[in-house]
Amino acid sequence: MFTQQSLSADGYNSKDYDLFTVAGRTCIEEGNSAQVLSIVLDEKNQLFQVLLKKEDRNRSQCLAIFNHLLQTCRPKELLIGLLEQLEQDDHTITIAESFRLLLSPLQTVLTSLGSRKASSLGMTLSSVLDQVAKLPVPNTKEQEEDDVFMLCRCCTDLKSFVRPFVEEARQNTLNSKVTSDLKAAGDQHTNEEELRTELLKFCMRTLSYPLLEAQLKDVDTLPVSPLREFAAEILSIFSAIGESLPKLVFQPIMKRKRVPGFLEEDVRYPKESLACLSHLVFVNHQAADTFPCVFSPVFILRANMEHVCFLLSRTEESRIHKGLELYEKSLVRVEDGCLPADLLEVGTFLEVPQNLLKVMTLCQDHDLRSRGLKVFQMSIDKYDTEAKYSLFQYMLNTVHHSGIEGYIIKNIKNQIDFALQPGNGNAWFKGVHLLPLVREVLSLPDGPETDLLLYLDRIMESLNLLRYLVIRDKVTENQTGIWTELSKIEDTFIKPLRVGVNMSRAHYKMELHNTQEAKKSGAKDESLLSVTVGNEKLPNLNSASRAEAVHMALHVFDMMESVLVRIEELTEGKENL
């Protein structure tokens, strides 16, 4: 038996090696190889650290000991020891260095386990990916080239590590197809299925991290990209284990035959991983050649809506960015005006616009907000007139953001304008169908007491729509029905708005007067004006800022009144015809 004694790397010499070799050989011959392994991997002895140093004079001797143990120790004991070493938090050793030393021995040990390796492989892959998750993902071309934290290096090593197990699974899949009419041995089939399951879990987890975090560069931008190659390898593993990429991507709308295994369906195919997979296929064009050309653009859009909905519902900017990219790519091949209204009965077709609105109004990144607006308009353009009508109606009833409401009203105006042009008539943006939508638009949320500044965008677009209608639609034609509805609009919108404008102007004029009087008298700013926007109280304003804010508010009220006056002039003139 060994007497365990700590030995530093600096104090390790040839005599120590000879002594260790004799004692170790004796211990192994007596069946105590596990004790030898525990001493080698004991961090106090620093033999493992010696193995990591290419220039260390004792490295070849330590490596010989280590390789001998790989041949003589029990695989299970060796596996546990190696994984414990991999999982140690040692700031003097990088994760990439641990991978370089340990992945090959781990591969050797797992291979020696034969057909019953699946659970051990799963445990190993889980530990390895736990280490990968500690490394930041490079975002830019330069970061991927420099690979400071060596995540790219780790991904490359990981590809080599799993390859023999993937090839084994591939061969099992081929053999199962050849012998599909024969009843396979129960234990063998179970072992093969376990191996497939562990590799599937590995692929799904790598899709979640690091691939969902990575912004893959195209070949023109980065000719050699370890992350792009890693993604391609992961996608190839799916086919090796008998998983169809189209079925995975289109899972939300395809009835999958339940696959026997050790995982429930939602766990076996995580939404986050499937969303990343779809992004790799349709945005990064990974494995695009495996997708048949028979799938229509509308079918692809329907399948991707669940992935888009999931990505846009997240708060991480990387997820939102990929959700916008996937939605845009899914929409671009769909013809304008072809999506029918019944698609809005599919939950995701209403959830995605709601998530987009959150991106446009709450996201901190200006580029993401701008892109969200662009994709939102693109999605509107793809619907037919009935679907646009239903979508606008739904949005006006559910959205509580003046800027978005104003944007929807502007779209309604554009659709009415298109419908009134010769040859473009439709039943949804003229006549009886249009009036309920117009009534919804031409209304004040709180009557005369509506906060006109808070609802500025909505109110101005509503006034612009009404002015457009009375100019564009002749009273003798009344294609939109606006002239028969005008008296109601007068009572429910124009009069309450005029009262609201007068009340608000009077209030702010008094505030301006008080501000000016206080300035003349030289009094201190005891009473500061508090401004509330969107139910959030902004910091109190000083005298100069208060006066400027009041003048801006008065200008807004003048602008509203000028449009109201113009509408009254237009309607009075036509009513007298």
TrEMBL record:
Cellular component GO terms, alphabetically?
A: cytoplasm
Which region is the signal sequence? Answer: none
Q: Which domain of life is it from?
A: Eukaryota
An annotated Gene Ontology molecular function:
ubiquitin-protein transferase inhibitor activity
Instruction: Give the matching Pfam families.
Output: Kinetochor_Ybp2
InterPro entries, sorted: Glomulin/ALF4 (IPR019516), YAP-bd/ALF4/Glomulin (IPR013877)
- PANTHER family named in the record: GLOMULIN (PTHR15430:SF1)
**Record-given protein name:** Glomulin, FKBP associated protein a
Q: Which organism is it from?
A: Takifugu bimaculatus
